[in-house]
Structures are given as structure tokens and as C-alpha cells.
Design a protein that fits this description.
Helix 1 packs antiparallel against helix 5, helix 3 crosses helix 11 and helix 14 crosses helix 16. 44% of the residues lie in helices and 11% in strands. The termini are far apart. Among the domains are: 166 residues, Rossmann fold (3-Layer(aba) Sandwich); 58 residues; 91 residues, Arc Repressor Mutant, subunit A. By secondary structure, it is of the alpha/beta class. The protein binds glutamic acid. The site of glutamic acid has 7 residues, from strand 10.
Amino acid sequence: MTNKDLADLIFPNITKTIEDYEKEYPERNLKEGARVTRFAPSPTGFMHIGNMMQVLINFVQAKNTNGVFYLRNEDTDKSREVEGAVDMIMNVLDFYGLNPDEYEYKGKIVGNYGPYIQSERKEIYQTFVKHLIEIGRAYPCFCTKEDLEKQREIQDKSKVRTGYYGRYAKCRNIPVEEAYNRIKNGESYVIRFKSLGNFEKKFPFDDLVKGRVELPENDMDVPIMKSNDGLPTYHFAHLVDDHLMRTTHVVRGEEWLPSVPLHIELFKAFGYKAPKYIHTPLIMKKDGDTVRKISKRKDPEALMGYYEKMGYPKEAVIESVMTIVNSNYEEWRTAHPDAKFYEFNFSPKKMSTSGAFFDLDKLDNISKNIISKKKATEVYDELLKWATKYDTEFADIITKNKEYTIEILNIEREQKKPRKDYANYSEIKEKIWYMFDELFDKHEKDYKYQSITDADEIRNLVKTYFEEYYDEKDDKDVWFNKIKDLSQRFGYAREVKEYKENPDNFKGHVGDVSTVLRVAITTESMTPDLYEIMRIMGSNRLKNRIENI
Ligand code: GLU
């Protein structure tokens, strides 16, 4: 009885060989230096900001080198799978314009290296497992969960390293014939890799981010195929898929770094060249005075859905994640303000090795800058798109008042130094609500008067202004002069300077008077340019506003 007999017993239906697949998925015909990258999420329903960072690194590398960026759905752990998870991933990639060149979605395969869904690749994995059994590098293991637990306890007690290795790898020496018969008798089993490593020896390898890393050789006989569904474990699927799909650079979280010796041993067992590895650091955030790992349970901003819900423009999110991808990104951006983010030359060496610090304040700054440079019509379109999904009442209002809203959004915009007041689309409403009667009428009103607080004085100023000075047709200079005239008439200085020189001669100054008008109209003491607000509102709306002052 030979290994081949055992392999045939386990996989009677596998008739292809690894060479067949080698031919089916040949080396990609790309020019020298082109990188093949992939995003390989498990469909667990989360898209973490760390995943976004990985996607960007993959995307940028593929673009930089005229390579390929593909998406692979790693759904071998059926118990963790969440419905709709793949749609969510596709939507995020699409929303940010990070569409993969190759993928599989809703039954459609795009690309020649598919299927791109692991559960559809069972036959391929099994062909590779079969090969390993034939060459004596994999074997069935009959240990039950209880056997393994018991062994772990013994190892713990005797203070030796836990795991399935060396003399603890009980099933590795079962004679082929015995294994054959036990399987025939219906005993259940997993398939384990037979490691040839020695834990006492060092295993140096290069991670493109961390440089030379030295870990012990792998000596664990890890499971490569599970018993319940015949699907591979992550380690084995990584080997098969990244080899056959001809991945050149694997970008993944640093939790996989300790597995590299095992992975390289797997590649070697087949005589394949392992891909290059880029292990991405954890994402950190500030929490009070400390910096800690961002957590998908505690921090809403850990998940990508947050940014869409908050209405951050996609360029702003990409831009701020790029700043943690490489330490020289901001410098590059300053030198190339109009370049596309993917023209940036990614360098793994310029990536943090200790943790990437993601800062929401920085995102806000980046975002304010980006929104301030957009045309009012573009802001309007994006605001409407956001509101249609997240605030339908506001979407209705700005749809009915389209030109009016664009005018509002255009205040202090489309000029050399535009006003940077919106960090995202969800905060626009709370900044311009008073411009819309529909919102104004039902809004709770807290008139934030400042230095002038006497109700009679306020009423007098406002009424006099609107009865005797206000004229819709005034240009800005005339408008302002009239407010100065009003100020003077009521005993306030026409100029702030004048007031500061002789404060005892005045009740206050022109700024105090215009604040009264501003608050009477909007309730707010801080608003964009008051002349513009009044011009856009027009006399009817203004007169209604001040009726009850
Ligand atoms: N499916 C793995 C994960 O979600 C992917 C790791 C990799 O990119 O190889 O962690």
C-alpha cells in the first residue's frame, strides 16, 4: 500500500493534477515589474479602516506598475459568514472608485484566474492536498478535539511548547495501511501538513515593511483541510490561490507575520516561489492622553460605513488613509496638489512598523480643504446624494430649493481663499438650517445675542434698520455704510477702531450692531458673510424673520 493509494481513497473524484492547474493558470503576461495584488477579505460583514489601508496599498501598487488588482472572497469559514457581506465590500470599493480588475460577483467572473470565491475552488485545493499526500508531505489525522485538548494540558503541565509538532504529532507516523483502513471504517479526520522544520533553527525572511525578520522555523503539522466540509484552512488556501492567481505582493495584517515561516515552507513543499509580503501595522487612535489600537467595537470610525454615513467625500477619506500608508505622502501631496492619489509611489519602507496613527481631526482638516475647493454645484450634488440616503427630509427641502441651496453653498466659495466650513455632508444642515423656512419654523430657537442684550434696544435697532435703511438692491458697500449710519444714530461707533480709542463715548460699535442683525435673522452669532445671507434670503423672507423680534 502506498501514499498514492491513500490519496486516491481520500479523493476518488480528483483526477486533475497540479500540473494541469499550472497550465490552466499560466504566469501572467505582464511587463517586467508589474505587480499583481489582491484584496482577500473574509465575508464577515466588516470592512475595517485597516482593510481600507490594505486596499489602497494594493490598488496603488497595481496602478503604479501597470499590474493587476483583484478581489478574492475568502469564504472558507462558513460559520463566520454574514449575509450581504460581499455586497457591502463591493459597494465600498465602488463608492471609493477602487474597483478591482478581476473579481467574481453575482455569478459573473471577470478575469482568467477565477473562480475568485474560495468555496468554488474546492476541487483545486483538493488536487493540491492530494498531491501532498502522494509525496508524503500531508497525512490524515484522526485526533479528536478531546485528544488535542488533553495533549495541550499535558504540554502545559510539563511546560513544553503547545501544539501539534514533533513527537506530539501523533498521527504523522501512522502507517499508510492503518490510516487507509481507519478511513475505510468511517473514522473522521483532518488533513495535516507534514512539516520538516526544526524549531531550534532560525528562519530569516524579508518582510517589505519590517525588513529582515528572524523567527524560528515552523515545525507544526497544521491542518490544511478541514473534516466537516473538505475546505482548506487559510494557510493552504493562501498557498494555492496566491500561487495560481500569480500574486506578486501579499498585503495583509501583521497578525499573519508569525505564520510566514509556515507559509514559505508550504510554498517550498511544492517548489513554488513565495510572493513578497507586506504586513500592515495596526491602526491606532488617540484616546485622551494615550494612543491605543482602534477597535471595531468601541470606535465607530473603525468601520468604513461610518465615513459614508457621516458624508465625508470619498477623496478626503482616501487622502487621510494615504497619509498613514506612507510617511512621505503629505510632502508628496504638497508638491503635487493636483495629482491622483495613485500616482504616488508607494514604498513599504516608508510605512510605520509600530502602528499607524489615524486622526479624525486630520481627516476633518483634509476634508474641509477638499470640500472648500469644490464648485457649489458639485457640493450640492454630493450633498443631495448623501441626504437622499441619510436625511430624506433635508433631501426634499434642497431639491425643492435647488438654486437657492446652491447660492447658499456658494457663499465665500469659488474664490482664492474659500471658506473652509464643512468637513462632511452630514454637518451642512446644522450649519445652514436657518436659511430654510421649513427648518426655521420648527427649529428650537436660541437667539445668541452677544454684547447688546436689551430686548427694547434690539427691537429698535432691527425695526429701524428694516423700516428706514434696508434696500434689497444695495451693493455691499452701500449696505455696510447704512449699518454704520444706523450705528451712529443709536450711539454706537461707526468703526471698531474709533470705539477702541474712546470707549466711553459710545454704547458699542458697528460690529455689535451687525451682530444684532445677524442674530435676529439667523439666531446664530457666527455665520458666513451676512451681506450674502441677506441677499440670498431676499426681502420677504427677511421681513418674516424679524416680525417677532
Ligand atoms: N481572509 C484573510 C483575512 O481576512 C486575508 C488575509 C490575506 O490577505 O491573506 O484576514
